[in-house]
Specification:
This protein has ten helices and twelve strands. The chain is an alpha/beta fold. The strands form four sheets. The chain has a six-stranded parallel sheet with strand order 2-1-3-4-5-10, with helices on both faces. It has a two-stranded parallel sheet with strand order 6-9. A two-stranded parallel ribbon has the order 7-12. α4 packs parallel to α6. The protein starts with 5 loop residues before the first strand and ends in an 8-residue tail after the last helix.
């Protein structure tokens, strides 16, 4: 990376987003960024231990290039222990921010964290421990970002799909995939809830673009398409495609009291690519080894 003008330190490269970011930033299409992939499990563990927090990153601080510290590590399962969610999703990035702020530098340093657009919904966050942790990180961003020597960019995401990893089993796509693979009945709610689905490749391209553009950080950057789909429509499209509509039972489960039924987002100028989620999820499932009975 002889001609690199920035350095990206990626913390977390095994999950959905982190793996896709590693592929995007490390690709020949991004020659101006020198990528360093940190041992995120060891690094997160170290920065959570106060006596050694600063030493955990010292070897990566000595760079003549402006640095983007991209915190893509995190827990997304709402069923995990709340204290664990808080430690990884809130305490770890805040300690990293403090370490970066305490280390003098003549070059610019930025911290990039990720949240969910639903962290703005206190009614939903109240019953979802994962979103509650992200809401706490957002509150910390509001209090600290404008006063920190380190520029802190907080990016809010919608539901992601795509890549080589299968969806988490607790996700809606994960539940659909499991039913299709096992030929089991898929019992869902009315499915009137709205969600935006974004392909990982589109999101990572957009993230690199907005970081290149030196976006202001006065507000969280929500990568929205303004084009949500109803879960029932997504399920119907997927099960029909795989000739498995007989497995789909809509209305068999209750709907949570706090939900999204009206579109609340407009197309973001930061989103540079977006593809049809119906075709996108179907293509993803096919790449994961699900085949239509019509073929």
């Amino acid at each position: 990376m002889r001609f690199a003008s920035r350095q990206a330190i990626l913390i977390g490269n095994t999950g959905f987003l982190g793996k896709a970011l590693e592929l995007q930033i490390g690709s020949p299409q991004v020659p101006h960024v020198s990528l360093t992939v940190a041992d995120h499990r060891g690094l997160v563990r170290s920065i959570l231990q106060s006596p050694v927090a600063k030493t955990a990153i010292e070897s990566m601080l000595d760079s003549p290039l402006p640095q983007d510290w991209i915190f893509a590590a995190g827990l997304v399962d709402q069923n995990r222990d709340l204290a664990e969610l808080e430690r990884i999703n809130v305490e770890a990035p805040l300690r990293l921010l403090q370490c970066l702020s305490d280390s003098a530098s003549k070059t610019e340093r930025r911290l990039i964290t990720f949240g969910s657009v639903l962290e703005n919904r206190p009614d939903i966050a109240a019953v979802n421990p994962y979103l509650r942790s992200k809401a706490r990180l957002l509150e910390a961003w509001k209090l600290r970002s404008q006063h920190s020597p380190v520029k802190w960019i907080h990016i809010q995401l919608h539901t992601l799909y795509g890549g080589t990893n299968p969806p988490h089993p607790f996700m809606f796509t994960g539940q659909m995939l499991a039913a299709l693979r096992s030929k089991a009945n898929f019992r869902m709610s009315s499915g009137m809830q709205l969600r935006e689905y974004h392909h990982l490749a589109d999101i990572t391209r957009s993230i690199v673009s907005l970081l290149d553009a030196q976006r202001e950080t006065a507000i969280p950057l929500a990568l929205s398409s303004g084009d949500p789909v109803r879960l029932r429509d997504l399920a119907c499209a997927v099960f029909n495609h795989f000739d498995a509509s007989d497995l789909l039972t809509i209305g068999a489960r209750p709907v949570a009291d706090a939900e999204v039924y009206e579109s609340a987002h407009e197309r973001s100028s930061h989103l540079i690519a977006y593809r049809n989620p119906y075709a996108g999820v179907i293509d993803w499932f096919e790449s994961l080894g699900v085949w239509s009975g019509k073929r």
